[in-house]
Amino acid sequence: MFAAATCFAAPAGAKPASLAPATMPKAGTIDERFQSYNIEMVEVTGGRFWKPYDSRKVEKVEGGNQPAIVDPSLFEYRSPINLSNARLRKLAAALGPAYVRVSGTWANATYFQNSDDPAPVTPPKGYNGVLTRAQWKGVIDFSKAVNANLVTSFATSMGTRDADGVWTPDEARQWVDYTKSIGGSIAAAEYMNEPNMPEGAATPKGYDAAAYGRDVKIFHAFAKEALPGMVFLGTGAAGEGTLIVPGAMHMLSSADMLTATGPVFDAISYHSYGGVSSRCASFGPKIGTTAEAALSEDWLARSEQTEEFYRALRDRFEPGKPMWNTETAQTACGGDRWASTFLDTFRYLNQLGILAKRGVQVHLHNTLAASDYALLDQKTYEPRPNYWAALVWRKLMGTTVLDAGTSPSASLKVYAHCLRSQPGGVAILAINTSKDQAQSVEVPAASERYTLSAKELESRQVELNGIELKLGADDALPDLKGTNTRSGKITLAPATITFLAVPQAHNASCLQ
Fold this sequence. Notes:
Blueprint: E1 17-18, E2 26-29, E3 35-40, H1 41-45, E4 47-50, E5 75-78, H2 86-93, E6 98-103, E7 110-113, E8 129-132, H3 133-145, E9 148-153, H4 170-181, E10 188-190, H5 209-226, E11 231-237, H6 254-261, E12 267-273, H7 297-300, H8 302-317, E13 323-329, H9 345-357, E14 362-366, H10 385-396, E15 397-402, E16 412-419, E17 426-432, E18 439-443, E19 447-453, E20 463-464, E21 467-468, E22 483-485, E23 488-492, E24 496-502
Parallel strand pairs: 1-18, 3-6, 3-14, 6-9, 7-8, 9-10, 10-11, 11-12, 12-13, 13-14
Antiparallel strand pairs: 2-15, 4-5, 15-16, 16-17, 17-24, 18-23, 19-20, 19-22, 19-24, 20-21
Helix pairs in contact: 5-6
């Protein structure tokens, strides 16, 4: 059982981590919309997305509306998401301001139907799916309603190319023009989703880094003219830094792609998955993970390892450019069964903490409400533990990142930011990853304590200071209240996550 932190004492003789919120130096800043999320393009259009583990549907697989590199039986048809759903909008708005990224592998081969006609049964030649005007207007309306600026990528499949296989902006221009005509805007975009995996991107046979560089230059010229002010993200690659793809899969090198493009991007984007889910077990056991390893140092370090890989590329090819993590979750291939439980919240918050400290500007979780790794249940939109964690982060963690110092224990992860909306205040995030040992911190000022725990680690219910978090009448969000805590030693129970708000820290970096 894993209960509230006050039920445990720290080990005898253990020295608490001494925290000094008043003097923690500034480590950097992050985008106000740092904590953000994805809605896959296939959710918007409807199509075959990752099959739920408990599904018993048997579908006859027809057409190509799923990545070609994965067994089609791993997918299941889902109807288009209802972006006007009141609960969905209320819960998304509570995370705002944010970015919403509508992209994914399916976006590479999605045709925009620039008319008010229903989508055809069969997509036009060179495409695998169809996005209607009504569906895209739903995305624009949703983004405005929930204060989420739009991030996307463009179709790059054979239907967008000329006879020589060169990308042309003809289809993209219609999509952009329609977006503008309904009052929408695109804040940031990648040219292609995960271009280093051309087998899944519906690109011409033999597509290589040189072809990518050629196409990016065409796209960049188009974007500067049609979308002035848009942040051009690239490359949006995945699977490097940590091995999450089969060795036999053909992959392009990000270094080769960046060499081919030259210094053209406004920010360096990348995708981060520490492994693949059990759905894709055929990829090999070394690139999966288990619930037993979820709190291990090896597992929790993988997001930092991936960031380090792409940071080195940034420093080599685009020095000084911001970094965006535009797609990330527990594991690729839709997440493991326990991705929807409190067990994954340790990875989720640790990843936010470490990437913010390392200066990553934007972190887009995959997804808001689809498959096992989503923040919300895909059928009911009920919040999952990671959603509640995101909500507490949004309440407390400001955009100025502080250096909390080095923790004396590998099982204690500590991060600090300026406290949101409280000049001089500091917010501390302390994560105890030990399943059987309490940890302690020493804080020389009064604070408000917010401890997240669960009765079982693989529970879909999470408690805040011992009270279960759940929606109220008419989907009212609970009042996230901290517990007044005196200065001095604070004990952190095994396998718990604690935020400490120190409003009177008087940190000079937080007065600006």
